Each structure stands twice: as structure tokens, then as C-alpha cells.
Amino acid sequence: SPLNPLFQAMESEISAAFDSGEPEDILSRAFKLTVTREDICTLQPLGWLNDRIMNFYMGLLVERSKKEGYPAVYAFNTFFYSKLSSTSHKGVKKWTKGVDIFEHDVILVPIHLRIHWTLLVVDLREKTIKYFDSLGQKGDHICKTVLKYLEEESREKRNIELTASEWTLHSMGTEEIPQQNNTNDCGVFVCKFADFISRDKPIIFTPEHMPYFRRKMVWEIIHQQLL
Question: Does residue 186 register a pLDDT over 80?
Fold first, then answer.
């Protein structure tokens, strides 16, 4: 059967985003971020996603969460954790100016570990902090660092003491979440972990979905709309 015209139009648009024009052409602008063709090209097969793509996609997830029927999502940007871990709560205190992160259901913390992307997820409803790594490495120390941050943020912003013992910290095991089968897809895994979690959906994708997810993300970022 012939491909439907909508799908063909999308495919040609995605190919054009990769192939025509100049690297510095602006293809999307939102969330105080500008995405160029050069940024979009990191979504080509085996490309390494950069901060702009990661942060823009997190912005799309937060935007969607404002709709009826979705958990309320807050996302830190990709520079948050490295700043927190190298300073302390003091160093990132201003990042949540005018925001009460505790009014949300889910907090997403995309993490850049030199050459690898991972994701930390705080579920305020369940009092859990979970670490998602598509290479199966443990992040227990990262969970602890974020719990300490939450304690200090709660004390300072709301004058409420969190009870650390009520919280469950857990690094997801390789049998619990899909694992990448190359050295390039960690950023896409993080975006899709965040996508499924921010819909309260079980994580059921596989490494085989990655080429499709990459192309889909190009369209979504250009149109500022999740499919």
C-alpha cells in the first residue's frame, strides 16, 4: 500500500532539515532556546544529542504536561546537575526562583556525565527517586545528591522538613529498562524515558526504535509539538 501523504510530507520535511540550507539556520525557537540546523543534525543516525536538543525536548514534555490528564512535570535543564554536584544547594538556589517544584508530580533531571546522558526522575507522589541509565551503570550517589537538594529546597522554600527515611532511591537495573546497543543513542534513550514517564506509561520501547525516534524528534522539535 502506498505510504499515506501525511507521512510522506513529514519524511521529506525531516530529510530537508538534515540536508538543505546552512548549519546556522534557525529551525525552531521556544523555551528561550534557539535550535539550528546544526543542532537538529545531531539527531541523524548515530549523532550525539547536544544540550539544546535535550533541553528543547524537555520543554516540549513540560508543555504537554499542562494538558488535562497528564501528571504535572517540572524539568531541570542539562546544566543543573553538574552545577549542583560541583557546588551545593547554594549554587543552584536561584534556578527555582518563583517556582515551587513541590507543586509538581514528576521532576525530570537530565544528566550529562562527560560523554554520556542519563536521567534522574523524582516522583513526588510516590516519594521515589529513580536513576535511568541506558548503559546500566548505577547512580545511587546521584540519587542521594538530589535527595539532599530536595531536603534543602523544601526547608528553604516551604519551611517544611522532608523525612529522608520516607523516600525510596533506586538505580534502575538492566532487566528493568531497555539498554542501548551502541555508543551513540544515550541522549535519545533519556528523551524517551522522560517521554514515557511523563505520561505515566510503562517503558516498553527497544533499541530498534531509535532510528524512528530520532526522525520523529526532528519533526516534533521543528513543529514544537509532540506526536
Answer: yes
